[in-house]
Design goal:
With 165 residues, the protein is α/β, with parallel strands linked by helices. Helices cover 35% and strands 23% of the residues. The protein folds into 2 domains: 1-45, no CATH class; 53-162, Rossmann fold (3-Layer(aba) Sandwich). It has 6 helices and 6 strands, in the order αβαβαβαβαβαβ. The strands form 2 sheets. Strands 3-4-6-5 form a 4-stranded mixed β-sheet. Helix 4 (84-93) links the parallel strand 3 and strand 4 (94-104). It is globular, with a radius of gyration of 15 Å. The structure holds S-adenosylmethionine. S-adenosylmethionine is lined by residues 18-21, 24, 46-48, 66-68, 70, 81, 142-145.
Amino acid sequence: MYVLGRARQLPAWGFLAIEVRGRFARLIAERAEKYGLENVKVIHGDARRILPRLAPCDCLDRVSLHFPDPWWKKRHGKRAVLTPRTLEEVVRLLGPRGELFVQTDVFPRAVSILRILTDQPDIENSAADGGLLEKPVDDCPSNREQTCMQAGLPVFRMLFRKKNQ
Ligand SMILES: C[S@@+](CC[C@H](N)C(=O)[O-])C[C@H]1O[C@@H](n2cnc3c(N)ncnc32)[C@H](O)[C@@H]1O
């Protein structure tokens, strides 16, 4: 699991995982405890409802969204995690030069997410051409990312930074 791998790599960082499915939230919390990862906290809930309740502003170095939308058909659009409203909350929580990383294997979702991110005036794309990243940003692939890479499926990655204000 990505959050556990990163928590092990970066023991001085604190990690907050938000997971809507109770079974997965419990699994992350149980494994973090089993591995002695005291720098991991887990919230069970819908990220779209949790983020507006988090404080203080400007407190996060990075927010990562890995393959957030398992329901990606058009009729499932209302379940999309990254909406302009959610993004406002993410940007509010990011510190100066804080990063937002998003990856998905669903090309139409990548296109719509890239548009939402590009339209947000307080963040800027780290990719010089304003598009997607060519490589992963760290050496800790998420479960879905590993599956995609092993199957030779494309992964669409984006990294944005909060502008200096
Ligand atoms: C396709 S899985 C990817 C799992 C993992 N992030 C990875 O990359 O292997 C999508 C995950 O996002 C969670 N999820 C979807 N919508 C969510 C939301 N609104 N808030 C919190 N978690 C959500 C799902 O429960 C599921 O665990």
